[in-house]
Write a structure and sequence with these properties.
Low-confidence stretches: 227-231
Strand order of the largest sheet: 5-6-7-3-8-9
Number of helices: 7
Distance between the termini: 41 Å
CATH superfamily of one domain: P-loop containing nucleotide triphosphate hydrolases
Order of helices and strands: EEEHEEHHHEHEEEHH
Strand content: 25-35%
Radius of gyration: 18 Å
CATH topology of one domain: Rossmann fold
Shape: globular
Helix content: 25-40%
CATH architecture of one domain: 3-Layer(aba) Sandwich
Mean pLDDT: 92
């Protein structure tokens, strides 16, 4: 299975907002600060760009890029991803037996299907969101800052879970984040995004251990300072 974005150009009038290309062979990280173009890239792949923007996209893929069919997304904040007034079981849109199967797949008890989102922890909610995404049987899973709203321990539990599920289910992953340090635990390749352009890319350990661009170095240093402060 393959997915290659040969061209992704997003413009606002004559102004280019994103102009990139990349290939996802397994798990691919797209890293950059706020405003770098990460969210626009995801919206383009999902067909959700605002009407005032234009998109020129060319994709070479072994599957059709179709939201809700071959493509699913896990958003950054599980607390707002679900309807607070609806029980978990009614948010799957699949039969209860299949919902129980996917809950078990992400390490949750089927009894939680009878609860409301407010009765679950952040980690449990993110696992529910993952279960819902996998119930679509996606070929490509998009991850939009999926660990930002979680505490440090839960963050790495979710990353470990995603790695295990990918090996089992065989989907491709595009991991979009500003937390450059966490990408090494789940991705094999990385691209650094700045002002809508990829300024550095390659195998993840090589880029993180021997960054060539000053922007990449600043992202790594900022992450180090943040982690040191937390300790």
């Amino acid at each position: 299975m393959s997915f290659k974005v040969e061209k992704l150009l997003i413009k606002n009038g004559e102004k280019s907002l994103v102009d990139i290309s990349f290939e996802i062979k397994n798990a691919f990280a797209l890293v950059g600060e706020s405003g770098s173009g990460k969210s626009l890239t995801l919206k383009a792949l999902l067909g959700l760009l605002p009407s005032n923007l234009t998109l020129d996209m060319s994709v070479d893929s072994s599957f059709e890029l179709k939201r809700g069919k071959s493509v699913a997304i896990i958003v950054q904040n599980p607390f707002t991803a679900l309807s607070p007034l609806t029980k978990i079981k009614k948010q799957f849109f699949i039969d209860i037996d299949r919902a129980e199967k996917y809950m078990e797949m992400v390490g949750l008890s089927k009894e939680l299907l009878e609860r409301f989102p407010s009765e679950l922890s952040g980690g449990q909610l993110q696992r529910v969101v993952i279960a819902m995404a996998l119930s679509l049987k996606p070929k490509l899973l998009l991850l939009d800052e999926p660990t930002t709203a979680l505490d440090e321990d839960t963050k790495y539990e979710i990353i470990s879970l995603l790695k295990t599920l990918q090996k089992k289910e065989g989907f491709l992953m595009l991991f979009v984040t500003h937390e450059i340090d966490i990408t090494k635990d789940i991705c094999q390749e990385i691209a650094i995004l700045k002002d809508g352009k990829i300024v550095e890319s390659g195998e993840i350990l090589e880029v993180l251990e021997k960054p060539k661009e000053s922007y990449t170095k600043s992202l790594i240093e900022a992450t180090f300072r943040h982690r040191k402060f937390r300790q």
